[in-house]
């Protein structure tokens, strides 16, 4: 089996912490079959000038070829006009990648597009050009948000209908994909894996010593992009209420994003700390140093940070959206609360912090598989789509 993958959500020089779940899954897949990965970088003439004017710096150069964890892949500039060009981006992605894809004609057995639009849309077009089946991997925003926009919903639906198979990390996402047109017979939930060498129960005090932090107070940790739809503002609002009742608790906001400075201002006067964006390899120590993780997102697929926290033996309080309720399926693992409800979030955090937790028991109860098993399930779907296509001639 040889598969061509096209996606823009993959770590690169421009965003080294982008979609670590795809990095782990695709690297694991490359050990089970041949993988040609095209990492897409949206581009338009004058992009560097515009970025320099807006942000005061040029974008990092993108090498034609790169590697991660011993896996080599290609990087492509794909034409995309910001904002106004989104309805055309599926087509422009495909035409930008077509010359390179055609060099693989007769050599690849399947095409996988990770992210329904524009990546999955382009993958379907490339698969048609190569005469092989197409699979789309959905992630959350691509169908929950883009799939609801009047200008993009028809394009997302077309891609899902035309795909030979659809996969996603939660049953809620698969159900949504089916609503939008995916074939229920070939749509399958495949949970993300977890690196169990990195994420495992650790001693809290030892982790804080490793971080050089002397505090012994209970920690609530938020890990995510600093934007409102990820729940950062709600986390601070809930912590303000929690702090009125428990003044021994601290909130750690891990991550970066456009709302970071606004969040710093909102948290002024509270014991809230902003360590900034961290390498993925540093996250296990911060989780190990915490007492509970929170992710009050407004919409989600199956957030890997929740899986990683549970495997690390830390309970989670998160929104009851997407695939999160399926993850927090036992009282020992934490609680789900309504999205955009800081009061309920504060109350749940107080309850979880008041309980004694056995990290080893939490990790065992969570029971997630590693990345190799997750990749094997992806390969099973790809093999099935190829077998069906060959049977149909």
H and E string: EHEHEEHEHEHHEHEHEHEHEHEHEHEHHH
* First-residue to last-residue Cα separation: 18 Å
Helix amount:
40-55%
Nearest-angstrom radius of gyration? 21 Å
- Total of DSSP H or I helical runs spanning 4+ residues: 16
Strand content: 15-25%
What is the 3D shape? globular
What would the average pLDDT be, to the nearest integer? 93
Largest sheet: 8 strands, mixed
* Secondary-structure-derived class: alpha/beta
Number of DSSP strand runs: 14
Low-confidence stretches: none
Q: Order of strands side by side in the largest beta sheet?
A: 3-4-2-1-5-6-7-8
Q: Can you walk through the features of this model?
A:
The chain is an alpha/beta fold. Helix content is 41%, strand content 18%. The protein is built from 16 helices and 14 strands. It has helices at residues 20-30, 47-55, 89-102, 116-130, 141-144, 153-162, 171-179, 204-211, 232-245, 260-266, 283-288, 304-311, 324-327, 342-354, 359-366, 371-391, and strands at 2-7, 34-43, 65-68, 71-79, 110-114, 134-137, 165-168, 187-189, 219-223, 250-254, 272-276, 292-295, 316-319, 334-337. Strands 3-4-2-1-5-6-7-8 form an 8-stranded mixed beta sheet, with helices on both faces. A 6-stranded parallel beta sheet has the order 11-10-9-12-13-14, with helices on both faces. β10 (250-254), α10 (260-266) and β11 (272-276) form a beta-alpha-beta unit. It starts with a strand and ends with a helix.
């Amino acid at each position: 089996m040889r598969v061509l993958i096209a996606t823009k959500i993959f770590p690169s020089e421009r965003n080294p912490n982008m979609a670590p779940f795809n990095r782990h899954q695709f690297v694991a897949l490359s050990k089970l079959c041949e993988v040609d990965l095209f990492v897409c970088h949206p581009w338009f003439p004058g992009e560097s000038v515009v970025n320099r004017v807006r942000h005061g710096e040029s974008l990092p150069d993108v090498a034609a070829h790169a590697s991660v964890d011993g896996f080599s892949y290609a990087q492509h500039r794909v034409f995309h006009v910001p904002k106004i060009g989104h309805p055309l981006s599926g087509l422009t992605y495909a035409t930008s990648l077509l010359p390179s894809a055609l060099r693989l004609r007769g050599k690849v057995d399947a095409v996988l597009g990770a992210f329904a639009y524009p990546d999955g849309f382009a993958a379907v077009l490339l698969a048609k050009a190569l005469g092989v089946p197409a699979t789309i991997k959905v992630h959350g925003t691509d169908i929950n948000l883009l799939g609801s926009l009047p200008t993009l919903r028809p394009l997302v639906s077309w891609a899902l209908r035309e795909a030979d198979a659809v996969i996603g990390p939660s049953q809620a996402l698969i159900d949504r994909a089916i609503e939008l047109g995916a074939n229920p017979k070939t749509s399958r939930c495949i949970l993300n894996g977890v690196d169990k060498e990195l994420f495992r129960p650790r001693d809290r005090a030892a982790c804080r010593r490793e971080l050089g932090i002397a505090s012994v107070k209970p920690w609530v940790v938020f890990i995510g992009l600093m934007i409102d739809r990820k729940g950062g503002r709600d986390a601070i609002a809930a912590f303000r209420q929690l702090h009125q009742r428990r003044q021994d608790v601290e909130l750690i906001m891990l991550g970066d994003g456009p709302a970071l400075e606004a969040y710093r201002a909102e948290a002024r006067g509270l014991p809230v700390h902003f360590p900034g964006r961290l390498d993925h390899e540093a996250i296990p120590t911060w989780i190990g140093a915490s007492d509970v993780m929170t992710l009050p997102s407004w919409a989600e697929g199956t957030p890997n940070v929740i899986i990683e926290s549970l495997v690390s033996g830390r309970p989670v309080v998160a929104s009851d959206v997407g695939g999160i309720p399926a993850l927090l399926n036992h009282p020992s693992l934490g609680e789900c609360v309504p999205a955009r409800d800081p009061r309920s979030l504060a109350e749940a955090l107080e309850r979880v912090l008041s309980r004694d937790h056995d990290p080893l028991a939490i990790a065992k109860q969570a029971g997630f598989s590693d990345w190799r098993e997750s990749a094997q399930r992806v390969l099973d779907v790809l093999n099935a789509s190829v077998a069906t296509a060959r049977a149909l001639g």
